[in-house]
């Protein structure tokens, strides 16, 4: 109450009582500053709305249509496609596979990525940091399909890995077309995202905090657990969400490394839309995938936010 | 609590030597200030004592125990950081409790000790606040409480006052000194501010380019600087190069011959003369053995004092400091005015260049 009264008294929003000078009122100047920013943001915003929300809305509309073999898509307003997903255990299994493969890949990325990011920030000299970071990002400069093809060469039944295994006198391992291979492939794709995200957040943690913890008697591990990890939480969340979303929607890796009998959601959507020509069901699958991803990442976000909001704001 | 001994400490980075053969004995309960310009190795030395930087050569002993190769968490030292380094995600109380938790003390003991430590810095009422909700001075107090609550053998403070404004700095300076004396804790205090070092320390160690330039009691360094560098760093603005002509007679490079105290020095020397000791248009001739004529070049008004730059006929300039009219000083002199410059011989100190 008193706060708003005070702000009303100290600012001059209307400009009605502005001094009779040829100067803009303080409020007006601030408003003028904002407008170029709006102007700059407008094209991007417009593009996002048209190019992203438009097709999305269209797809959602499709998901409510009916599929009639021979006629393809028939205009309708039905939830039958969604009902089909929840009635068919096959598709639920596809979703379950997508979830655990994504969850595991993300977890592995976090476990492998954190030490690398931490090393990059705290140990590498400035000269080497840039080079190593470039090395981390290098795989991203390659196309997804090319990279996945390379994994096929490595993981194939007569691939590099099994060639190595047989030189050790061991029997070859079946890797190609297994979920293990898909997880390996996904981790290799996603790890750079995790490392770069974590690197930037760890960079912002004052090294003196770790020195302080150490001088107070904390071991390296305790310092990591009590000081570094809590402060890196926003970055861990961002990196985890990024990797999870990307692997939930992965296409090339599960198709090429997982093989025909391994099904994840994104390939299933493609299957329906491009092969079965069942646009309504494909759209419904896409929306289920999106909804599940959204719910999980939002929940994670809320849970983590609740922990670090207190001191981060 | 214990005495600290640095034995020929050396720190080398590839080609550069940051700390070059520093030896120092610090008595139990003594407060030693490591003073020097940035890059002189004072912070590196402190961090080596704290264990954050490994030493290249030499040994560090605390209470006779060799700590050289121990990590910081095994040294039992309290460290105060320049930016305080309070854990932003922990409350004031949790920050102070951290070191006690590491020592696995019972919860009740921790609560009691945290309370005592915060009482000591008058912050118990803010125990539940987060660091960012505190002012700079309060943060500094929390950092101090956090470093002291673990009952360290040694307290190490890295520029603890440099982030505070002038008034708060004075207050904290006294408070740190006070607590240090109460606890009788051996303390190393790093600073680049000579005034801070003089007013807080039992002993001042002035460093330059990784070496100890001079160490001694505050008045030793201030009144008896052993070198040109020390005199300059201690605020002597008049350093006149020259050579001894005979005992007590000093010939400036510019030709003037002045009377100086007897000193066992020879070769290229400088006469260090504080601006406060330079008298303009003095009247008591008996005290003013050295009197030269000069001209006021310009005056700098500094509130309590006015600094005059005066030029001798030979071109040499001197700074003379006089009380301003605000504190009952004489009327200001305007530039261009002819004045007599004088000082007592014993006001000057000869230092090697």
From TrEMBL, chain B:
Transmembrane segments: none annotated. The keyword Nucleotide-binding applies. It holds the Pfam family ABC_tran. Gene3D superfamilies: 2.40.50.100, P-loop containing nucleotide triphosphate hydrolases. Signal peptide: none annotated. Residues 4-234 form the ABC transporter domain. Keywords: ATP-binding, Nucleotide-binding, Transport. GO terms for cellular component: ATP-binding cassette (ABC) transporter complex. The keyword Transport applies. One of its GO terms (molecular function) is ATP binding. GO terms for biological process: quaternary ammonium group transport. Belongs to the ABC transporter superfamily. PANTHER family: SPERMIDINE/PUTRESCINE IMPORT ATP-BINDING PROTEIN POTA, SPERMIDINE_PUTRESCINE IMPORT ATP-BINDING PROTEIN POTA. This is ABC transporter ATP-binding protein.
């Amino acid at each position: 109450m008193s706060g708003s009264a005070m702000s009303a008294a100290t600012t001059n929003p209307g400009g009605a009582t502005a001094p009779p000078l040829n100067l803009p009122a303080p409020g007006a100047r601030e408003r003028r500053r904002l407008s170029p920013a709006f102007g700059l943001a407008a094209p991007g915003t417009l593009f996002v709305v048209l190019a992203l929300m438009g097709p999305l809305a269209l797809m959602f509309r499709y998901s409510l249509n009916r599929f009639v073999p021979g006629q393809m898509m028939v205009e309708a307003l039905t939830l039958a496609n969604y009902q089909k997903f929840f009635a068919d255990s096959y598709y639920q299994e596809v979703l379950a596979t997508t979830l655990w493969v994504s969850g595991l890949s993300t977890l592995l990325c976090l476990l492998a990525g954190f030490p690398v990011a931490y090393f990059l920030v705290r140990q590498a000299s400035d000269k080497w940091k840039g080079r190593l970071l470039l090395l981390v990002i290098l795989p991203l400069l390659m196309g997804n399909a090319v990279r996945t093809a390379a994994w096929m060469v490595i993981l194939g039944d007569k691939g590099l890995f099994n060639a190595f295994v047989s030189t050790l006198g061991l029997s070859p391992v079946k890797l190609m077309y297994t979920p293990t291979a898909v997880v390996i492939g996904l981790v290799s794709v996603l790890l750079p995202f995790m490392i770069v995200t974590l690197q930037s957040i760890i960079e912002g943690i004052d090294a003196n905090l770790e020195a302080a913890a150490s001088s107070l008697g904390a071991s390296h591990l305790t310092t990591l657990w009590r000081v570094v990890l809590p402060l890196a939480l926003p970055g861990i969340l961002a990196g985890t969400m990024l990797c999870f979303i990307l692997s939930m929607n992965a296409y090339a890796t599960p198709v090429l490394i997982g093989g025909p009998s391994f099904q994840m959601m994104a390939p299933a959507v493609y299957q329906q839309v491009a092969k079965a020509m069942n646009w309504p069901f494909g759209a419904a699958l896409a929306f289920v995938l999106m909804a599940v991803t959204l719910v999980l990442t939002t929940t994670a976000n809320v849970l983590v936010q609740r922990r670090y909001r207190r001191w981060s704001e | 609590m214990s005495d600290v001994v640095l034995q020929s400490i050396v720190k080398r980075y590839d080609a550069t030597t940051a700390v070059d053969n520093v030896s120092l004995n610090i008595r139990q309960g003594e407060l030693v200030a490591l003073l020097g310009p940035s890059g002189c190795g004072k912070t590196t030395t402190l961090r080596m004592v704290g264990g954050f930087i490994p030493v290249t050569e030499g040994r560090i002993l605390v209470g006779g125990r060799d700590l050289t190769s121990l990590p910081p968490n095994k040294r039992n030292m309290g460290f105060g950081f320049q930016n305080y380094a309070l854990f932003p995600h922990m409350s004031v109380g949790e920050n102070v409790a951290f070191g006690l938790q590491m020592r696995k003390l019972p919860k009740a003991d921790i609560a009691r000790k945290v309370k005592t430590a915060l009482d000591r810095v008058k912050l118990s009422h803010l125990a539940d606040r987060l660091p960012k909700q505190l002012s700079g001075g309060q943060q500094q107090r929390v950092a101090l409480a956090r470093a002291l609550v673990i009952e360290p053998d040694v307290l190490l403070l890295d520029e603890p006052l440099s982030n505070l404004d002038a008034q708060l700095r004075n207050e904290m300076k006294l408070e740190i000194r006070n607590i240090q004396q109460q606890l009788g804790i051996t303390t190393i205090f790093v600073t680049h501010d000579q005034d801070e070092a003089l007013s807080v320390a039992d002993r001042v160690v002035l460093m330059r380019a990784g070496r100890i330039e001079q160490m001694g009691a505050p008045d030793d360094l201030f009144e008896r600087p052993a070198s040109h560098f020390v005199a300059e760093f201690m605020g002597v603005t008049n350093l006149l190069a020259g050579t001894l002509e005979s005992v007590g007679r000093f010939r400036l490079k510019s030709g003037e011959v002045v009377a100086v105290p007897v000193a066992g020095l020879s070769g290229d020397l400088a006469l260090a003369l504080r601006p406060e000791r330079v008298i303009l248009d003095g009247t008591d001739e008996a005290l003013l053995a050295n009197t030269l004529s000069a001209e006021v070049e310009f005056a700098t008004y500094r509130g309590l004092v006015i600094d005059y730059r005066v030029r001798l006929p030979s071109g040499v300039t001197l700074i003379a400091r006089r009380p301003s009219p605000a504190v009952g000083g004489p009327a200001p002199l305007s530039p261009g005015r002819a004045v007599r410059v004088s000082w007592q011989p014993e006001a000057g100190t000869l230092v090697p260049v």
